[in-house]
Amino acid sequence: MKKIREIKRLKIVEQIILVLLLAVITPTIVSAIIVNNINQHAVRNELQYSALSISESIASNIETFTRSGEDELDQIVLALKHINGKQRRTEYLRDLFTTSNLISQLHIIHKQDKDKYLKWQEYSTYNDSTKQIEILKKIDEDEAILATVDIQIFKDQIFNIYKKDDRQIYILGKGGMLLAAHNYNKKDYERVTYALPKHLVQNKSQLFGKVKNQPLAYFKLTDPDITIIVNTTHHITKTTINTARYKIILALCLSAFFIIFVVGIYTSYLYINIRQLFKGIIALSKGNYNRKIRMLSNIFTPYEIIFLATEFNKMADEINNTYKKLKHTNKELKKLDEFRSNLIDTVSHEFRTPLTSIKGYTSRLLRQDIELDEETKQKSLKIIKNQSERLSRMVEDLLVIPDIEGSKLNLIIDKVNIADTINDAILSTKHKAQREVVVDIPEDFPDVFADNDRLEQVFINLIDNAYKYSYEGTPIKIDVNKTKNHAVIKISNSYDYIPPDKLNKLFGKFIRIDDKTTRTTRGTGLGLFIVKGLVLAMNGSIELESSKENVFSVVIKLPLNE
Predict the structure, then answer these.
(1) How many CB atoms lie within 10 A of CB 526?
(2) Which of 103, 156, 163, 385 is deepest in the core (most CB within 10 A)?
(3) Of the candidates 157, 187, 165, the residue with the CA atom closest to the CA atom of residue 232
């Protein structure tokens, strides 16, 4: 059992080849052997039957020929008995000879000449010296008539219907003398006569010989004493049995080749498609979820393979989509984790300073052991107020972030006078820095569609950033223009050149121009993120610009009331 388990699993192509060997090649070979044997047996029987038939037919022809000759001689003998005179008999025989198609010569012989013609009795024999058949008929006890028949006439009469037959036919006379032959071949004649049995069955066709596919047949006649032999030559066997054998084998080979060819095409397409399935599964197992199975779809492609490929592609799409969602979720979780870390860091850092100031000045005002003048009290209260406002703005910035990210901002879009909103924002931030703010806005500038409070918050954040990130003593410029259906507000300040790759990152959360090690200003790094979210929510747009002339600008576009 262990050895069976250790046997290597065959691939599908190897299995199909094995199935072809077992289901096509082996049955084809067995079928070829069986059909060939059946065909050979049938053709052999046909050859044997035809050999027997030919021998019987030749025997029948010889008997007919002999009877015809004897009947003609009987009539001649009868006529001669009634004709007197040598002259008259000679004329009669001459006239008869010229009209006879059978007899080549006629002679009247006398008893004293009997030594020339065997015994003085009627006979029919073949004369080997003259190559003619002699037939002797008595007229009376003293005279007889001798008729000779040319062997060619005999052959024409006997072999007439077998002129185109390839068989060899031999006619033997008394003592085994060859009388006539059709398709004579000395070597074959000697082989056939040697194989002829010594004791022959008379007046019946018989088979003899040891070569089954070349049957020999004989027919022994007693009157006249003649033996007919029919030989089936190798050429006949070749054109019947062997040719049929080759045709059968060729037909079976062509059938097997066609089956193998069709199965080969089917196997190749099946193998290619299964290989595609394998590659898709391997790619999926290695994490390549974008891999699709592309089938060679044709008449040789099974429905099940197409179904598997389609379902596999659907599964791969679902896994890929799930993987993308999971990847996006992980990225969001990473961002949330970074946001949490930054939030904690920012809150702990940025909230500590105003809280420390509020706590210190409050403690100072509550002390009873010292007496503070009115100016000191007012200064302390002012600082407490500013730090409280700073805390309030930071809390408001933190609270507005979820609304921006979730697109849940509640805005009241209405007509807003942009000049008034900019002035209010300047007044709200002016106490932070003694810096000139230059506003250039055309008179009677049309209103914009926006939320007044949120737009003021946008300008406060931008102006506050301009205060913090600009050179000392340089003015802040605010230019307002109109292009088509939008108002363009550009807030500029002097600052170091910022490359484009860093410039686009400033809209992110907790992103600052100065990092933790070089930080010189306070802030949460949420200003531009909140500004962008508010501007986009009011159907506007915002861009950052930094020139190599050390000018940093924020460009805002808002829809006009027009």
Answers:
(1) 25
(2) 103
(3) 165
Same domain, 226 and 242: no
Same domain, 456 and 490: yes
Burial of 324 per CB tally in 10 Å (0-12, 13-18, 19+): exposed
How confident is the model at residue 345, as a pLDDT?
Answer: 64
Q: Which amino acid is at 323?
A: Y
Q: Is the peptide bond before 224 cis (omega within 30 degrees of 0)?
A: yes
Nearest CA to 206 among 58, 53, 40, 64?
Answer: 53
Residues 426 and 544 occupy one common structural domain: yes
The ranges of the chain with pLDDT < 50 are 1, 4, 118, 516-521
DSSP letter (8 states) at residue 219? E
In a domain, 58, yes or no: yes
CB 380 within 8 A of CB 367: no
pLDDT at 303: 79
In a domain, 112, yes or no: yes
Listed residue (464, 458, 328, 449) closest to 404, CA to CA:
458
Q: Range of 472's domain? A: 409-559
Q: Do 150 and 43 sit in the same domain of this protein?
A: yes
Whole-number Å distance between alpha carbons of 169 and 232: 9
The pLDDT value recorded for residue 406 is: 64
Joined together, the tokens standing for residue 56 give 């019987």
**In angstroms, rounded to a whole number, what is the distance separating the alpha carbons of residues 147 and 159?**
22
Helix axes of 303-350 and 352-366: crossing angle, nearest 10 degrees? 30
362 to 367, 370, 383, 389, 391: CA distances (angstroms):
9, 14, 10, 15, 16
Distance CA 93, CA 146 (A): 11
- End-to-end CA separation in angstroms for the chain: 92
Residues 6+ apart with CB under 8 A from 495: 469, 470, 471, 546, 550, 551, 552
Q: What is the pLDDT of residue 490?
A: 92
Q: Is residue 363 part of a domain?
A: no
Report how many domains make up the chain: 3
| pLDDT for residue 385 | 81
The letter for the amino acid at 70 is E
Same domain, 47 and 142: yes
Write down which residue in 327, 345, 376 finishes a domain. 327
DSSP 160: G
Beta strands in 388-430 (DSSP E): 414-416
CA atoms of 383 and 482, how far apart (whole Å): 40
Strands 143-150 and 105-110: antiparallel
Give backbone dihedrals phi and psi of 178, rounded to 5 degrees, phi first.
-75, 120
- Judge whether 387 lies within some domain: no
Give yes or no for a contact between 553 and 490, defined as CB atoms under 8 angstroms apart: yes
Last-in-domain residue among 207, 232, 257: 232
Identify whether residues 188 and 248 lie together within a single domain.
no
Residue 491 burial (CB count, 10 A): 23
Structure tokens at 279: 């590659």
